[in-house]
Amino acid sequence: MTFQKIVPFGNTGLEVCRIGISAGYGLDASGVEEAVDHGANYLFFGSMRRPSFGEGIKRVVKKGRDKVIIVLQTYWRGLPRLQTWDIERGLCSLGLDYADVMLMGWFNSPPGQRLIDEALKLKEAGKIKLLGISTHNRKSVPPMAKSGVFDLFHIRYNAAHRGAEQDIFPHVDPVSGPGMVAFTATRWGQLLNPKKMPPGEAPLRAADAYRFCLSNPHIHTITTGPKNRAQLQEALSALEKGPLDHEEMARVKMIGDYLYRKKSVFGI
């Protein structure tokens, strides 16, 4: 059994591949093209807008703008106008008239109304289609989802951090609710690190960490940050391998529980 490559992205009206690709770790332009050729249509041009990744976006857009979902992230907290400037700068660098998603980065409480109003002006002007937000504060998601302001959420979810299963998923419907994107699927690489494993236990492969997230129907897609083609192919292989079976799931959760008991990086 394999994963269905393309699924409805919550209530956004879009369809998304279950593997999304991030710009931040070094994948080059030809790698972006390869990812899209294999169905990966969620392209996250985030806080590290690497020029080579941007070149890849330009190439795939020429082949069909409606085939990809372009995500621009902004971390601005101060003057709302600078948030708009940051998005417009990103659009200019890609030669685009609009982004499919503007992602307000790392808000552990709802953004101020002035920032939201500025974002909604971009939406009204057609420069963005959807408004998303990323957060590490799981309990903030249900009320923000209920507000109807945000079309999608980026949330921390992996085998070691499973709190979303209690704090978010029971309160947000995967069909009628907003789009849901998981980040840190490998827990900053710790789930793949032999030195972090329980005694005598082999580390996970990256594909297995991704399969854990994708085995949950509340997660529509995940963001991966491949550095090269080999890591891209490993990520894409998760789609063919499909959901974890009972034995695989038990092992992944055991390793996740072991890591969770250790001190988390960044204290979270």
TrEMBL record:
| Listed InterPro entries | AKR2_Oxidoreductase (IPR053135), NAD(P)_OxRdtase_dom_sf (IPR036812)
Q: Please indicate which superkingdom the organism of origin belongs to.
A: Bacteria
SUPFAM superfamilies xref list? NAD(P)-linked oxidoreductase
Protein name per Swiss-Prot or TrEMBL:
Aldo/keto reductase
Q: What is the lineage of its organism?
A: Bacteria, Bacteria division CSSED10-310
